[in-house]
Amino acid sequence: MASSGQRSRSPRYPSIGLPEAVRLVRAVYDKDGQHPIPREIGVKHMGYTSLNGASAKVLASIVQYGLMEATGTNEIRLTPRALDILKPEDSRSKSAAISAAAREPKVFADIDERFPDRTFSPEALEASLI
């Protein structure tokens, strides 16, 4: 419980939406495919000038969706899920990969578990998140 004047920590939540994450991953794929690359190069491919607080949050969001993964010290690469979205074998594999990515962040998985029929009021959702 947070004391007066302190905010409690919210659940991990991606700082960008899935469509933006896919757009940024495509930019990396267009430059380097699925090869492992330094994180600094990856964020530059995404349009950032350097690896800093803002770009690190975006990169963390992309990892939360399961579209990139760490491959070594300070290296990243696209995951098979990202390739299923960017270069799918068929529309079903793309749809399945998008659905899996949307449910990957823990906060979204928790919502999906709590409201399996996807019927909830904004108030119920807010209460469950708080």
Summarize the SSE layout with pairings.
Elements: H1 18-32, E1 37-38, H2 39-45, H3 53-64, E2 68-72, E3 75-78, H4 80-86, H5 91-103, H6 106-114, H7 122-129
Antiparallel strand pairs: 1-3, 2-3
Question: What do you see in this structure?
Answer:
This protein has 130 residues and is mostly helical. The chain is 55% helix and 8% strand. The protein is built from seven helices and three strands. The chain has helices at 18-32, 39-45, 53-64, 80-86, 91-103, 106-114, 122-129; strands spanning 37-38, 68-72, 75-78. A three-stranded antiparallel beta sheet has the order 1-3-2. Helix 4 (80-86) crosses helix 5. The longest helix has 15 residues, at 18-32. The chain is globular. The chain starts with 17 loop residues before the first helix and ends with a helix.
Give a quick set of tags describing it.
about 130 residues; mainly alpha; 3-stranded antiparallel beta sheet; 7 helices; about 55% helix; about 10% strand; disordered N terminus
How are strands sequenced across the largest beta sheet?
Answer: 1-3-2
Structural category is mainly alpha
Number of strands: 3
Task: Write the element-wise H/E pattern from the N-terminal end onward.
Answer: HEHHEEHHHH
User: In whole angstroms, how far apart are the ends?
Assistant: 12 Å
As residue ranges, the low-confidence spans are: 1-11
The 3D shape can be described as: globular
Brief write-up:
With about 130 residues, the chain is mainly alpha-helical. Helices cover about 55% and strands about 10% of the residues. The chain has helices at about 20-30, 40-45, 55-65, 80-85, 90-105, 105-115, 120-130, and strands at about 35-40, 70, 75-80.
